[in-house]
Amino acid sequence: MMAHAGKPVTSKNFIGREKELALIMEYLKLGQSIVLVAPRRFGKTSLVLEVLQRIQKQGLYTAFVDIFTNPGMDMLSANITGEVLKNHKLNLQFHKAKTSALELIKNVKLKAVLNDFEFIAGFADKDRNDWELIAESIDFVDAFSKRHNRKMVCAYDEFGDITKFDKNDELVKLFRSKIQQHKNSTYIFSGSYESVMQAMFVTRVSPFYRMARIVHLSYLEKDALVRHLQHRFREEGINCGKDFPRQIAAITHCHPYYAQLAFQQTILYKALYKKIPSSNELLQQIIAVEKDYLEKVWEDVYTRRDHVLTLKALAHGSENIYGRLKTTKINVARALKNLEGMGLVFRKENGQPFISDPIFNQWIIQTTT
Ligand SMILES: Nc1ncnc2c1ncn2[C@@H]1O[C@H](COP(=O)(O)OP(=O)(O)OP(=O)(O)O)[C@@H](O)[C@H]1O
Ligand SMILES: [Mg+2]
Which of 27, 41, 118, 236 is the most exposed place for a label (fewest CB within 10 A)? Predict the structure, then answer.
């Protein structure tokens, strides 16, 4: 089977993350909500889906809402409500019937839900108030699980996107004030660094993050990745031992997205040239495939001279970067802090900063002067 880099992975192709899974499952068991942050493509969505699958197997209710895919507040409300109803396999019927009051009550099972939760009829009401509907939908997560006496774990992916709906951040505040009163449900808020954190700090007096423990997601564990790759290569009829998977781990720094891409590119290369690529060939292929994405990342920082200089210095080696940037007169500490906030820079345990995306690092070395 061909690996598809880009979509979230599930069960069979899901690699490692055992420590993160154990920690998150423990938090959730304690009823502790969490915020899962990582830069783009580190596997947040994949991990959340894996967590929810395990939670569901334990007999709890689950809901998964991707804020990004809902352009309007009405759609978001319907999405939340539908995800909750999915626990009773009523989501498809709900989405089909929701715009007509008659259809809603014609469906016996939906009618029963409607008796308990009148607000659902609001989806069929042309003059409904979108703010009331979203408020009810947010509460429905907890109310439904309470009604059926089950715990619920609800995940809001790309939660940072919540700020797109209104200028005054009223929706984030609404989410906070509602969710903090929920007794039956526990939440996972996930997304990329900047946006999620921004949303978390919107309410200054009582910020969002106080209700939730922050979990940072980093690279995959090397052993788990190497074992997994070896297994997948063998499935493809490539008996390469551990050396080649180790090279992939080295090139990609065990970054989940690039590791999958490296696997995919290797299979392609093998089909075309009847041999396995060298480390450098593989790296160059990955850079070529990712060209547009990397240029976009660079564009996002390009207007800030201090960011550009700091990233260039880091790309060429992260030791003594204060010394090397001394003559530029930029505020290195501040630039690093900003870049960390954007998820572009990580720190080693000893505090040494480095570029979190290993391919971006190579790209900077090769294409900028
Ligand atoms: N645990 C994992 N095991 C194997 N592959 C993974 C894992 N996590 C992520 N990946 C790979 O990385 C890609 C991106 O994963 P995912 O979409 O979950 O990341 P994300 O952090 O949610 O990304 P985005 O910021 O774009 O939403 C997947 O398509 C998959 O190839
Ligand atoms: Mg995602």
Answer: 118
Nearest to 17 by CA among 40, 47, 41, 52: 47
41 Cβ closer than 6 Å to some ligand 1 atom? yes
Q: Which CATH architecture has domain 296-367?
A: Orthogonal Bundle (1.10)
Write down the domain spans for the chain.
17-216, 222-289, 296-367
> Residue 16 and residue 316: Cα distance in Å, rounded?
30
> CA–CA separation, 148 vs 38, rounded Å?
34
Which residues fall within 8 angstroms of residue 119, CB to CB, at 6 or more apart?
Answer: 132, 133, 136, 137, 140
Nearest ligand, measured from the Cα of 40: 1
Going from the Cα of 5 to the center of ligand 1, the distance in angstroms, rounded, reads 8
**Which pair of tokens denotes residue 218?**
């980093």
Assigned CATH for 17-216? 3.40.50.300
Q: Ligand 1 pocket, 195 CB below 6 A? A: no
**119 alpha carbon – ligand 2 mean position (Å):** 30
Q: Is 232 in the pocket of ligand 1 (CB under 6 A)?
A: no
For the chain, the straight-line distance linking the first and the last C-alpha, in angstroms and rounded, comes to 41
Q: What is the pLDDT along the chain (369 residues), one digit of tens a residue?
A: 344 456 776 667 789 899 999 999 999 999 999 999 999 999 999 999 999 999 999 999 999 999 999 999 999 999 999 999 999 999 999 998 888 888 888 888 888 899 899 999 899 888 889 999 999 999 999 999 999 999 999 999 999 898 889 888 899 889 999 999 999 999 999 998 777 777 777 666 667 777 888 899 999 999 999 999 999 999 998 888 889 999 999 999 999 999 999 999 999 999 999 999 999 999 999 999 999 999 999 998 988 999 999 999 999 987 888 888 888 889 999 999 999 988 999 999 999 999 999 999 999 999 987
Q: In angstroms, how far is CA 238 from the centroid of its own chain?
A: 32
- Nearest protein Cα to ligand 1, atom 8: 43
- Considering the entire predicted model, what is its pTM? 0.91
